[in-house]
């Protein structure tokens, strides 16, 4: 593909993703994109991985056009995405997880809605999720219901990592997120609800958001998260996410977002 300004930038955060990389996830992304008529770029942000993810990415992108590796100090997923957003040149920016639990081909479901004038098109994992345990299925329903009572009532699934943004919209509001403005340094992997704060700010500003059901099945093999003691881990994640939702709601009630 000739070098030209990309129409779509694909931003992929990476923290200890060696096992996913070894099963060929980047090749899946690459093989899909090289078949598309539009210009594209892929930006992989290595968030100071402690495994050999960086080397695996470097080996894969060598000699391939339009693929970039960006190394940053460890800052967590929001910081990695923010670094990628600032580097991205496309008019549209897709954020997607390295594990490709939502495969890159699902982008074809989002693009028509962007063409119809939506500023943000988000993937929704729906209720029938392959590889989604009963614990997480029940927890997701409870969390989504309670969150919907407080924020983003028209959106069922805020936490799917597969989202398509207009560049100017996401660049305008991402810096206001607490995870970015406070510049906290996480240790290891930590779930966050930054998506909720971001979507809330975008919706509050009057931009159009569309939710589209996409294919999803749990394909994650990484060491990013502990794969043992799922119940305890999910309880801890849920408590943390609930605290963040409460914080966003309190900020709204206090008027802290009024000038955003």
SSE blueprint:
Blueprint (H helix, E strand, L loop, with lengths): L7 E7 L3 H5 L2 H9 L6 E7 L6 H9 L5 E5 L5 H11 L4 E4 L11 H9 L4 E5 L9 H17 L12 E4 H7 L4 H4 L12 H11 L4 E5 L16 H25 L6
Parallel strand pairs: 1-2, 1-4, 2-3, 5-7
Antiparallel strand pairs: 4-6, 5-6
- Reading the helices and strands in chain order gives EHHEHEHEHEHEHHHEH
In which order are the strands of the major sheet placed?
A: 3-2-1-4-6-5-7
What's the rounded overall pLDDT mean? 88
As a percent range, the share of strand residues is: 5-15%
Structure annotation, total helices: 10
Classification by helices and strands: alpha/beta
Portion of residues within helices = 40-55%
Main beta-sheet strand count, sense and barrel state:
7 strands, mixed
CATH architecture: Alpha-Beta Complex
**Segments where pLDDT lies below 50 for 5+ residues?**
none
What would the CATH topology be? Spore Coat Polysaccharide Biosynthesis Protein SpsA, Chain A
Query: Got a strand count?
Result: 7
- What is the end-to-end distance? 39 Å
Outline type: globular
Number of domains: 1
Radius of gyration: 18 Å
CATH homologous superfamily label: Spore Coat Polysaccharide Biosynthesis Protein SpsA, Chain A
At the first level of CATH, what is the class? Alpha Beta
């Amino acid at each position: 593909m000739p070098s030209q300004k990309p129409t779509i930038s694909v931003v992929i955060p990476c923290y200890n993703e060696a096992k996913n990389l070894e099963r060929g996830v980047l090749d899946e992304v690459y093989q899909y994109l090289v078949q598309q008529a539009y210009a594209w770029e892929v930006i992989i942000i290595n968030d100071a991985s402690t495994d050999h993810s960086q080397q695996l990415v470097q080996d894969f992108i060598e000699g391939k056009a339009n693929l970039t590796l960006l190394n940053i100090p460890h800052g967590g997923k929001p910081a990695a995405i923010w670094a990628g957003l600032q580097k991205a040149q496309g008019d549209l920016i897709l954020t997607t997880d390295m594990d490709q639990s939502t495969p890159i081909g699902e982008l074809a479901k989002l693009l028509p809605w962007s063409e119809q004038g939506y500023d943000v098109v988000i993937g929704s994992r729906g209720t029938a999720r392959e590889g989604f345990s009963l614990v997480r299925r029940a927890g997701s329903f409870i969390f989504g219901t309670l969150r919907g009572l407080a924020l983003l009532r028209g959106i069922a699934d805020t936490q799917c990592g597969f989202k398509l943004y207009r560049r100017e919209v996401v660049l305008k509001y991402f810096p206001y997120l607490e995870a970015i403005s406070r510049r906290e340094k996480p240790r290891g992997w930590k779930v966050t609800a930054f998506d909720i704060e971001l979507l809330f700010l975008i919706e509050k500003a009057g931009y159009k958001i569309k939710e589209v059901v996409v294919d999803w099945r749990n394909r994650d093999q990484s060491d990013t998260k502990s794969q043992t003691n799922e119940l305890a881990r999910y309880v801890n994640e849920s408590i943390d996410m609930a605290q963040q939702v409460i914080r966003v709601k309190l900020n709204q009630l206090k008027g802290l977002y009024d000038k955003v």
